[in-house]
Amino acid sequence: MSAETLLLATLLLPLVGAIGIIATGRKPNIREGVTLVTATLIAILVMTIAARFMAGEEFALTVIEPLPGIAIAFKIEALGMLFALVAGLLWIVTSIYAIGYMRSHNEQNQTRFFAAFAIAISCTMGVAFSANLFTLFLFYELLTLSTYPLVTHAGTPEAKRGGRVYLGILLGTSIGLFLLGILVTWFVAGSVEFQDGGILAGNLDPAWAGLLYALFLFGIGKAALMPFHRWLPAAMVAPTPVSALLHAVAVVKAGVFTLLKVTIYIFGSDFILSNDVTGGLIWVAAATILFASMIAMTKDNLKARLAYSTISQLSYIALGAMLASKSGLIGASMHIAMHAFAKITLFFAAGAIYVATHKKLVSELNGLGRAMPVTFTAFFIGTLSIIGLPPFGGMWSKWYLGLGAAETAQFALLAVLMISSLLNIIYLLPIPIRAFFSKPDNGQHYTKIAEAPKTILLAMTITSTACIVLFFYPDPFYQLANLAAGGS
Amino acid sequence: MESHISLLLVVIPLIAAPIVAILPRGRLPWAAALLVAFVCAALAGIQLWAVVHDGMISYELGGWAPPWGIEYRIDAVNAFVALIVAGIAAITLPYALLSVEKEIPEHQIPLFYSALLLCLTGLLGITQTGDIFNIFVFLEISSLSSYALISLGKKRQALTSAYQYLIMGTIGATFFLIGVGLIYSQTGSLNMQDLSTLLPEMSHLRTINTGFAFIMIGIALKLALFPLHLWLPNAYTYAPSVVTVFLAATATKVAVYVMLRILFTVFPHSFAFATPTEELFIMAGIAGIIIMSVYAIYQEDIKRLLAYSSVAQIGYMALGIGFSSASGVTATLIHLFNHALMKGALFMAIGTIIYRLGTCRMGDIHGLGKQMPWTFGAIIIGGLSLIGVPGTAGFVSKWYLVIAALEAEAWISVAAILIGSLLAVVYVGKLIEALYFKPITESGKQIKEAPLLLLVPTWVLVFLNIYFGLNTELTVGVAESATAILGLVN
User: Fold this and answer.
1) Whole-prediction pTM value?
2) In which band, very low, low, confident or very high, does the pLDDT at B136 lie, cut at 50, 70 and 90?
3) Which residues constitute the domain of residue A433?
């Protein structure tokens, strides 16, 4: 297949899948078959593209040019490839998980759920492959809209409230600030194309660069920087597969991915470093890392705790982007992948606990480890990877982020990263410890509780194994991150 | 042949109107009106094509040479607006059949179509003519017929709203006429092209200044520029659905055209610069966008919600005029077209709900999204276009408008435009929430999707909203050449 065909297929296939899902909605087995086939094909497609991309092939495609100079166009570069690879590989795992979860939970409107999920994946691929800010913005907004029915899936007043916060903050920041940033970029540079080395150097008075960067930093609400982070905990009312793939991987990573793209290909790291564009703003990310971790400690609801942990981890990536040094960018890019595998494992486990026991609170988990050993082992592995210990993948991204902070002599930021790792230990590690070593409350024994359905266990096993594999074999992601950061 | 088109566009609906009125009851009046609308749309399309390719067309009525005789003078600006008017008429009329049968007593149907054609005559006439007094005549034709059309609404408030519009509209028309009279007293000419050569030397005269002010206020009333919009929400709310669709998509647009014509062709550009006109437009625009969008959020009646949103959208167009730069006027012209598409689509979708339900209050439409998925889809896409999400026509308008504001370094306007979009998120969201998330009532479960004859025209407009969001050759291209004709160069 030609490069264009492959690219287009990755974007359109999930949409075709969504139509297939709607058409076969009355027969759940066939419908789930459609989901699995589509997800498998997508995984194969992104791996094929990745292999051919690494071999040096170029992937570029202009679909239509609505305004002169502003086209809906796609072009694959290293960072987008990395993001697409993560999202594409994890979709199939999440699909396996989701089928088990939704069925054992007897959720309503499953057809709508799977269809919206597929559309969201298509939008994610659009974000990953976009060749300019306009295309990226288009798919960024579509991603928000297509995930809205997933957030409000339960239809309860709480879900609707969550949905309102979700839509309000994401659309509000994107229209009010992000779009303005794009318009200003177009106005000063006459282009919104992603280019190596950026397009702003020489076009923008460095004195204004910090302000423009702030428009992007806060406007990209999906990156969940404080004070625009509230949508992410609000989105936790969604079914767990949604929280797992979209609100730990696709949607939030689309946010930090966009931030990285803007940093590398619009501003350019040289421009940022030589003019100290992000000197003050970087502390927003640092503060988010610490505050979100502290809030996470106070949350008893497991998913809420994981959500705040995600907010904190996302700011690692924002911080790496704003360091703008080579190691910082490598660390940030790799963290997209490493955090994705670890956090999705944690969410899978949280969902498994909920399916098997209907427990949502951390304080209720005492002693459950014996009854659900696979789940809590997976949770334990995910936890260690998030903390950044060897031999787990999460170590590499933290290594490079720390290196980036040291490289630019920002020792205060290095301290923030270290403190945050300690905080991670404090709010995450007690969960598996409670489960394995504490006695159940009231002296009862969990005799009736068994592990969640097999598909759920399978998904968890895959992602937690991946956390370990990525420690020994981080090469594909490292190479892409290195390329994105300007290395060869 | 092409030069005759300009006259035919006015004469065909004018002659057809009385004929339709005396046709027997049944579907014949509708069929005749439909035919006229299609012919007009085709002619307007040919005319725009001819003007873009061969340049300006001048048609002297009765062979009397201007400036003594009446001249129809067609360039890209008015050919563009004429196409909007005739095109919307052609899309509205297929929709009209069922909706009108439901909402209008049978014996009034021929009269209804007759009045609609007269309104079309007036609106097309305004776009075609090159004579400023002639504009007044056609303005009155369109206004008088729209008073009649609005008063045909089912609720009794339709009468009072029509009356309110009558009073306000007459004041506007009178102001316009006084202004024209004052200018005529000094220049002795009514031909707009002629005026544009005469006025530069006279722009210091107080009479001319007064005349200018009267004309501006008069048209501002007609186009419902905030704070002269008071007639519009009632008129749109209580008029029959078809009338709302037609007027919302055309009447105010034509008034904006007249405004542009007078500001930039008739009067010299320096004139507007010397007076506080621009500042007033920008202030009215900003205030209109913010205040009216907030009003829209609190409306219980959906048609009224959209009506307030329309006033806010007129604020965007006023902003573009206020920047009085090439990019600003281009943005106004683009939004003129795009807003006709999005409001047309939304009012049509609401009309189909009214067709099934009889009302369109927030409280009555709970959960109908699942019963009427196609109508609901139309509302979603129309709403996204109204917000200005990329990929829709609304985004193109907003893009050009913000760029124009950045060029003018009008930071408050930039903020107002973006805040306006956010407020649109709120009121569109409110609508969608009511349609989708509120539990459906028992009686609501009996509601079925609307018939195809209503859905197809609605979806034609919905499709155009997306098409012109992705392919802007027509809108941007024509708007740019129209701006050049108005004498504004980048």
Assistant:
1) 0.87
2) very high
3) 279-488
